[in-house]
């Protein structure tokens, strides 16, 4: 087996969208192309549905599904494609942020009628910050929606992207005739059929020929010609280099439900998307083709069965090959571990494999040794960067509700925080513990899991914080810093890795602090 070839043929990406834009549907259609599944309906939605079931039952269901959809892999046209699942629900946004540290590119799905929505904005902002290459897929063209040019304007303005269309719709909704593929220079005529697996496209060498008129009608073809001209004037030509640098984002149109435009999306993705990309450690940059294995933990999943207390740690392999039963250094613990049953993921199954390559994700059984962000190597002391914690949006004191179970509570909280369910802050003033989450749902998850997995009970009390700001100072003896600490004493805490945090109670107090103490830098993420 040629390792370099194996690495070069991997494409690891995530699909991000606001809930309901069509991420699950698109994922499923992509898997159909790989022959990884035979029929529609095989990919389960990881959506949280409010309804008959109570919230925590829903959460348990969600956890089960999210194991099975964590990584979906398939082979297509000699490439190995790994799709990493990114929950769309805002209460699981932190999980999605972390998953984005493990992808080499993303596809952004946007609903043609709803346009850019809130969750898309947040997730794209993270991708933009990290300069992740993005392809935009405008979905549901079979429905009435916004004008394609208006939508691209909206994408540029709200998401801060620089787009260039690689395909363009001919009509829309009731009048939807098909798509002109600028990338491949052909036309795909629309027939609504969700079971269609292979699309027939008609090559159009000369847009001015009558061939196009015959296919879609004279008025539609004239309109298309005008629009394509406008596109040429307004948008820059596609430039792969700019795309790879995160400076330009190609846009494609389609309808996932009708499996329309999906083959084009996948083929375009294969043509342009990056193979495994280099990644920074605190020590140096790691190249995927380096012979020695390096990787990091981006997700931890507790076992659903309370009798088996082990967890599955998801590792993104950054370089080299990961081998079964080989010894690897866990650099935070400075301890070596061997893994006898590393899981690899195929379609919706996972199975034990002997070798995985850079770009792949392996799931390792873990009894509590891993935390999000941990690094594995063949001996070199490295620590991967870029897996920060983000400021939570909700804060509550956590109290022990069963004094006989304080050990269990401590262990439970500790492990749940390692899994990244929420963040723990310890107040400087009195040592009280505050749990910060992205969504209120997580408090229910924590309470439920503490009770069912650790036999501990907790209660919450509101803590009046607005944001967690990680504090940076160039000199801990500096006057402004000391003054800041004295004045804000009540709001100071340590995060789990003992970094100093200011739990600000309002936007106003953050602004005031920034004004009054310009030498004290406040950050909304733990890495700066
Ligand atoms: P997710 O929340 O982003 O995973 O969205 P889903 O894939 O679950 O899709 C949300 C809803 O939109 C479902 O009812 C889909 O059947 C529907 N949907 C997805 N793609 C299309 C499309 O191309 N056209 C239409 N009309 N509906 C679609």
Automatic annotation (TrEMBL):
Family: Belongs to the TRAFAC class translation factor GTPase superfamily. Classic translation factor GTPase family. PrfC subfamily.
One of the Pfam families matching this protein, by short name: EF-G_D2
Gene name, Swiss-Prot/TrEMBL: prfC
Superkingdom: Bacteria
Annotated PROSITE patterns: G_TR_1, G_TR_2
Gene Ontology molecular function terms on file: GTP binding; GTPase activity; translation release factor activity, codon nonspecific; translation release factor activity, codon specific
SUPFAM superfamilies assigned: EF-G C-terminal domain-like (SSF54980), P-loop containing nucleoside triphosphate hydrolases (SSF52540), Translation proteins (SSF50447)
Principal subcellular localization: cytoplasm
HAMAP family according to UniProt: Rel_fac_3 (MF_00072)
GO cellular component: a single term: cytosol
Record's function text: Increases the formation of ribosomal termination complexes and stimulates activities of RF-1 and RF-2. It binds guanine nucleotides and has strong preference for UGA stop codons. It may interact directly with the ribosome. The stimulation of RF-1 and RF-2 is significantly reduced by GTP and GDP, but not by GMP.
Any single biological process term in GO: regulation of translational termination
UniProt keywords, alphabetically: Cytoplasm, GTP-binding, Nucleotide-binding, Protein biosynthesis
Residue intervals of the Tr-type G domain: 8-277
UniProt key word Nucleotide-binding: yes
Subcellular location: Cytoplasm
Keyword Cytoplasm: yes
Organism expressing this protein natively: Flavobacterium aurantiibacter
Protein name per the record: Peptide chain release factor 3
């Amino acid at each position: 087996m040629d390792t370099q070839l194996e690495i070069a043929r991997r494409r690891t990406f995530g699909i991000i969208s606001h809930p309901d834009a069509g991420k699950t549907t698109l994922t499923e259609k992509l898997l159909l192309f790989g022959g990884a599944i035979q029929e529609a309906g095989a990919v389960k939605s990881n959506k949280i549905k409010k309804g008959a079931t109570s919230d925590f039952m829903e959460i348990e269901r969600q956890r089960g599904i999210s194991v099975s959809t964590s990584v979906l892999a398939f082979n297509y046209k000699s490439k190995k494609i790994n799709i990493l699942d990114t929950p769309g629900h805002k209460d699981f946004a932190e999980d999605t942020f972390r998953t984005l540290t493990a992808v080499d590119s993303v596809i952004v799905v946007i609903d043609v009628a709803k346009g850019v929505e809130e969750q898309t904005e947040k997730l794209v902002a993270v991708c933009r910050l990290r300069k992740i290459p993005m392809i935009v897929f405008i979905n549901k063209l079979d429905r009435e929606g916004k004008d394609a040019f208006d939508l691209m304007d909206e994408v540029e303005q709200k998401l801060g992207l620089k787009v260039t269309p690689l395909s363009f719709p001919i009509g829309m909704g009731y009048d939807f005739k098909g798509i002109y593929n600028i990338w491949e220079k052909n036309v795909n005529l629309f027939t609504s059929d969700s079971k269609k697996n292979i699309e027939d496209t008609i090559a159009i060498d000369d847009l001015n020929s009558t061939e196009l008129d015959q296919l879609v009608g004279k008025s539609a073809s004239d309109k298309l010609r005008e629009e394509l001209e406008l596109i040429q004037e307004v948008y820059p030509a596609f430039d792969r280099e700019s795309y790879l640098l995160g400076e330009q984002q190609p846009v494609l149109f389609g309808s996932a439900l009708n499996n329309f435009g999906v083959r084009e999306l996948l083929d375009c993705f294969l043509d342009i998307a990056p193979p495994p990309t280099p990644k920074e450690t605190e020590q140096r940059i790691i190249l995927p083709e380096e012979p020695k294995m390096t990787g990091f933990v981006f997700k931890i999943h507790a076992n659903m069965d309370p009798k088996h207390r082990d967890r599955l740690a998801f590792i993104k392999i950054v370089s080299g090959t990961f081998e079964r039963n080989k010894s690897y250094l866990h650099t935070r613990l400075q301890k070596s571990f061997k893994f006898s049953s590393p899981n690899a993921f195929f379609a919706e199954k996972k199975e034990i494999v002997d070798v995985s390559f850079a770009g792949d994700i392996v799931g390792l059984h873990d009894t509590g040794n891993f935390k999000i962000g941990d690094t594995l190597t063949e001996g070199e002391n490295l620590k991967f960067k870029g897996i920060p914690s983000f400021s939570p949006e909700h804060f509550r004191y956590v109290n022990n509700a069963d004094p006989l179970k304080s050990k269990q509570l401590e262990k439970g909280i500790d492990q749940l925080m390692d899994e990244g369910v929420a963040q723990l802050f310890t107040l400087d003033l009195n040592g009280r513990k505050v749990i910060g989450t992205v969504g209120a749902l997580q408090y229910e998850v924590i309470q439920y899991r503490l009770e069912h997995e650790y036999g501990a009970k907790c209660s919450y009390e509101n803590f009046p914080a607005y944001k967690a700001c990680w504090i940076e100072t160039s000199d801990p003896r500096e006057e402004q810093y000391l003054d800041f600490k004295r004045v804000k004493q009540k709001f100071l805490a340590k995060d789990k890795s003992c970094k100093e945090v200011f739990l600000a109670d309002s936007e106003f107090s953050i602004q005031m602090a920034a004004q009054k103490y310009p030498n004290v830098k406040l950050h909304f993420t733990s890495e700066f």
